[in-house]
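Usage example:
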Amino acid sequence: MKQKGQGRLGWLFASPYLVYAVVFFAIPLIWSLFLSFTDWNLIAPTFNFTGFSNYIEAVKSPGVQAAFFVTFKFMFLFVPLVIASSIVVALIIHGLPKFKGLFLIGFFLPYLASGVVSSLIIKGILSYNSPINEFLRKTLGLDIDWLGNPFAALFVVALIIAWKFTGYYALILTSGFESISKEVYEAAMIDGVNPWQRFWKITFPLLYPALFTVMILSIGVTFGIFTEVYQLTGGGPNYATNTWQMEIFAKAFTNLQAGYASAIAIIASIVTFISIFIIRKLLEMWGKRNGWA
Amino acid sequence: MDGRKKKGLFFRYLIAVILLLIMIFPYIYMVLTSFADWDQVDKKLIPTDFTLKSYQWLLGGGEAVIPRPWLHAFFNSFVVSAGSTLLMMVSGVMVAYALAKIPFKGRDTINNFILFQMFFPAIILLIPTFLVIQRIGMYDSYWGMILPKALSLWAVFMYANFFKAIPDTFIEAAKLDGANDFQILFKIVLPMSKSITTVIFLFLFMERWTELLWDMLVTKSDSMLTLNVLLSQMFGPYGGYPGPMYAASVLLTMPIIIIFLIFSKKFQEGMQFTLK
Amino acid sequence: MKIKKVASIMFAASLTVSGLAGCSTGNDSKSSTTSKNGETTIEFWAAPNPTQQVYWKEIADEFTKENPKIKVKVSPMKESPTSEASIQSAIAGKSAPTMSENINRGFAAQLAESKALVPLDTLDGWDKVKSDRNMDNTMKGWEFSDGHQYVLPIYSNAMLFGWRLDILKELGYNEPPKTYSEMLDVTKKLKAKFPDKYVWAKADIADPTAWKRWFDFFMLYNAASGGNKFIEGSEFTADDKAGESVLTFVNDLREEKGLLTRQAKDPFESGLGIFTDIGPWTIAYWKEKFPNMKWNETYTLATPPVPDGMDTSNVSTFSDTKGIVVYASATKEQQKAAMKFIDWVYSNPENDLKWLEKTSLPPARDDLTTNDSFTEFFEKNPALKPYAAAVPNAIPPMDNAKYNDLQTLIGQQAFNPVVKGEKDPKTAWEDMKKAIEGALK
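Running the assembly step on the lines above writes:
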């Protein structure tokens, strides 16, 4: 009797999610699948079913192949970069007896920046005749084509996004440090452990849960990059920064190939899903094997 | 020994301050450049001559240019972000309460589905969501921007975790006093969740405020532009006027920083819990 | 049990959605027409360019004064990321305007293929517009492959190259070079005297975005080929010799270190580069932001350089030409009102003159050089005179519906890699040809 009332109440409270899941998840998902087998362009009154040809064309296209590899290249640049920088920030802040909160907030501020704004600033700072580039050229003889060189462009985008997330991840890591008790350190001091060993043998394993969260979060970030690439490179040079979102956006809304773009979106989703799943499992195995998790 | 410790601490602070300055330098650059004389925009890292010209130009237009609706876009951004965030908070609280505190058949199914959906790449839904909004007749309206972002799985997840930690005895006691679940949720559970609410609110608001792709797709008229979209549009035609672009960036960034700083104390408390 | 419940809720929700969808289709046409007591409202999208918005707002106000039954609502089209994309999503969102300007031929072909445009020749009064505006000849070149007319071109703007005259003079030249080898000589002298300067400093030449080819490749190619059609219908008909010579020339410029493909701030205005494409709109922009840029002192304008041995007078160039279309989603009343508006605007040459004064873009009419009201304007604005003179030799863009893909291929396969020194000109041209022929199939 009571159980029944509870059931209705439960569904009532959960109803916002149910409506949302149907309207903005289930229906779009089915629609997307349907579109991916057509040649519809969003505006023509009619369309044809084209079977799997969108998928075949997508797999063969240089833009999609680039998106596949760019995501992983980006991951190998961005994830170590952001993890290293956030560990450094967290290590420095952690030991401060005063103003710790103030510093945490300060480092967190970049996370609040809109990608449009940070792209604008970076564009200004990296232009050929900007103060920094003039300096590099005139004093060091360095002439770097920041956005025209494939590796440099990828690096710049990774750097902007790492800049944005460092403070946020550092915040997560400092709370990981907090869980490490003073006694453990003191015990280690007595045993005469040097700082390097201390970091790897004590800090790192205890930090691992927080680090795991940061790694998963940052890997998730790499699959959803759009604004910075869209504003800075448009996916170039020669697809070197062409992310999945960029490719889908360009095909659907610039080239007006909604059907084809839907096929790419589905491929992107499958790739993302499988990649994150595998990486997660690998990280878990790695943690378990070393006895951290 | 003590002196060495003091010295070490001093260096720690020094490094922290230097690092912090590097991290927030882009902001400093943005604000200074927005007030810089046009000859110095992007030509000097720290400008020396200052003027209000960029702001005047931005809001009043130049000789060859008519002004764009910056203030209206600011208003739009606010309406959309506030509306969307509010809905995400309410829906998040409700669903999370159901998942955490109401035992009912199907709860586990919903729970699993939410987890599945959280890891589901959202890109796939971009085009059809656009079509759904168009069919419901919400293209180019506030609702078109707000509704697809009226529920945040992340907020549900965070709230559910927090609610689970609240002892059931509180709720049972309230029930014995004759309170229903709505009253319990809004009068007892929510007041206990102030700090996490601050964290969730700030994250959601910030994320909505800086949204670009969706708002760009789903609006067409000037009266619906959000600040971020307007700024992104100005890259092309006004690329020759970087000063006003920096001024617009200040307009876009400052509100969120101010809101954040106002709530920063609560935010820190909330983060402590979130990260446990 | 569980599944049943979920399924029934989902079903109910999807019904609500489709029900709402049913309502909205009825609403759409109402919201844009509002024909109360015989009044028709038409929505006109002006180009994102601010001066054009001002022009159309004023014109619409005047028109409504004389025709109170027709309200013209002017708003600028968005650029997200291009004005084309925003038109497409508006059509897909079922809220296209009645009409808009700023449509090029290729895009019109693409829209026409999706039946999104009204063939203007099927509307009453089309012939009257053509003769009133004196544009019968111009319109012949605008016929689409199905025999219809979809676009009324507003302006035809022959693109020219600007040269920094002050710097040329320092190198001992009194006028810009005209042929490839002359230009290479200038490059050598420039690099000898100012190693930090470049001839052509423009990041766009290394960017494959389709429309960017209009302002580099097509200017040079049209000049080198004497105005040969690059694509005819769905055939690749480009002049191989001219194409290869353009690429070879660009390659030579690169080898002399005359090209800079880096994103730079005001490269031409600051004298970092001494050569770049210039449209009339730039001159108004300079007036406000770079008052030091003075015609015949700091800069001058010239037609594109040509291969050695070609005639250097009457050189062809690219014509940036765009016009007005009427969208098929507009009601019959709106289409009629739109035509009335067009006719009202273009039966009076004063409106074209006003356009010319406001935007500096030469109106697309047959009598531009003979009609007194225009010649007077060009006498007063000598910097714009070269544009009027180049109009007869200006070649409009291709009208292929796949123009976006095709022009991207020109950049990706040929122009960009040559500019960056990644391909030799001959292979680049061959690769591009193969790719384009594949895409046209």
